[in-house]
Specification:
Number of helices: 15
Radius of gyration: 21 Å
Family: Belongs to the fatty acid desaturase type 1 family. AlkB subfamily.
Keywords: Cell inner membrane, Cell membrane, Iron, Membrane, Metal-binding, Monooxygenase, Oxidoreductase, Transmembrane, Transmembrane helix
Number of strands: 2
Mean pLDDT: 95
Organism: Paracoccus marinaquae
InterPro entries: AlkB/XylM, FA_desaturase_dom
Helix content: 55-70%
Structural class: mainly alpha
Distance between the termini: 45 Å
Pfam family, one: FA_desaturase
Length: 378
């Protein structure tokens, strides 16, 4: 990293997401192709900066007190009101002003979906892992704004416990193309999240319709978002809201696909699996995309230490965790072209298998997801 960037306050680079807000306003007012500024900034500029700045392999002290991370935490805490204003303010503005064509509105809300998916869901993910009720509520609100509230239950109760096993739907299998993965996740994850929550309620002697079931909160928040879009923009506003939500979900699942593609935990027999290790997630140390995505690409450490806040996440070398050749923005583009993805990533998965699991000769059950479900999995 250059000396110029190293002199910035430590939290400053992680605030680069905030610059997308004026781009939303500019695109809404100017119309035309101005909406391209949003994916241009979030994806292409970030990829270019990754090429210039390279990898950041420095690790912060992991025991820094939370109080010293105020400005790191602040960007995630203020994000919901900013995103809320961007989504619903734009719905009101474009349906009332009448100066944009239908295609211009679709382009604009595609760009807003980039905002709510590339940034909003990533920030929600960080917030949901914290113990603070405020942060968890803000995470719930961000997920409701893209109609994906069940992600909280699925991620915390299933994904982190059972990643790299057949119980985890978002652990992409070797040779599984993204489009097949996306259909499987959209089908399996909501009911998987429901099963996990109702099993927890059953352990406490409560039924699935108990008021403590968070699916009541999920439904209420999502219905509230849909109703607000309808009130502000009528049917058109409602459709634009759903369109941006789908774009955000698409980006989330592309990221999920990249994060664990082909990586599995060793089956120890009788439904037992080895403990999660850094080797079970793809690691990426690319500087700019880690700024934009608040270190999400240090994913190996996130799974190894899920309660560690994003500024303290560690990066790993190739001797401990598999490495992506590019940052997430570039890798998600490759993932949308399955033959190119397989050509780029399958040799890396095979090398990972040889390095970490030389004793396994037959991977067919792992590849097909045919291994036994983990014991005690919901």
């Amino acid at each position: 990293m250059s000396d110029r960037f190293s002199r910035l306050p430590p939290a400053a680079p992680f605030w680069m997401s905030v610059l997308m807000l004026p781009l939303v306003a500019l695109a809404a007012m100017r119309g035309g192709l101005w909406w391209l500024l949003l994916p241009g900034y979030a994806w292409y500029l970030t990829m270019a900066l990754d090429g210039v700045l390279g990898l950041n392999e420095q690790n912060p002290a992991p025991d820094i007190a939370t109080g010293r991370l105020f400005w790191h935490r602040a960007v995630t805490i203020i994000w919901f009101p900013l995103q809320f204003a961007a989504i619903f303010g734009t719905i009101w503005y474009v349906t009332q002003s009448g100066h944009l064509s239908g295609l211009e509105k679709l382009g604009l809300f595609f760009g807003i979906g980039v905002l709510s998916g590339t940034i909003g869901i990533v920030y929600a993910h960080e917030l949901l892992h914290q113990k603070s009720p405020l942060e968890r509520w803000l995470g719930d609100l961000l997920l409701a704004s893209v109609l994906y509230s069940h992600f909280r239950s699925e991620h915390l109760l299933v994904h982190h416990a059972w990643v790299g096993t057949p119980r985890d739907a978002v652990s992409a299998r070797y040779n599984e193309g993204f489009y097949r993965f996306f259909r499987r996740v959209m089908r399996d994850c909501p009911r998987s999240a429901w099963r996990a929550e109702t099993r927890m309620l059953a352990r406490a002697g409560r039924g699935p319709w108990d008021r403590r079931n968070p699916f009541w909160r999920y439904a209420g928040l999502q219905l509230g978002m849909l109703a607000l879009a309808l009130i502000l923009g009528g049917t058109q506003g409602l459709l634009l809201f759903v369109f941006q939500a789908f774009g955000a979900i698409w980006q989330l699942e592309l990221t999920n696909y990249v994060e664990h593609y082909g990586l599995t935990r060793r089956h120890l027999g009788d439904g037992r699996y080895e403990h999660i290790m850094p080797r079970h997630s793809w690691n990426a140390g690319h500087t700019a995309s880690n700024w934009l995505l608040i270190n999400l690409q240090r994913h190996s450490d996130h799974h190894y230490k899920p309660d560690r806040r994003f500024p303290l996440l560690q990066t790993y070398g190739a001797d401990e965790a598999p490495q992506l050749p590019m940052g997430y923005p570039a890798m998600t583009f490759v993932a949308m072209v399955p033959p190119l993805w397989r050509r780029r990533m399958n040799p890396r998965v095979r090398a990972w298998r040889r390095r970490f699991y030389p004793g396994i000769s037959d991977w067919s059950a792992y590849d097909k997801g045919d291994l036994p479900l983990p014991r005690n999995a919901p």
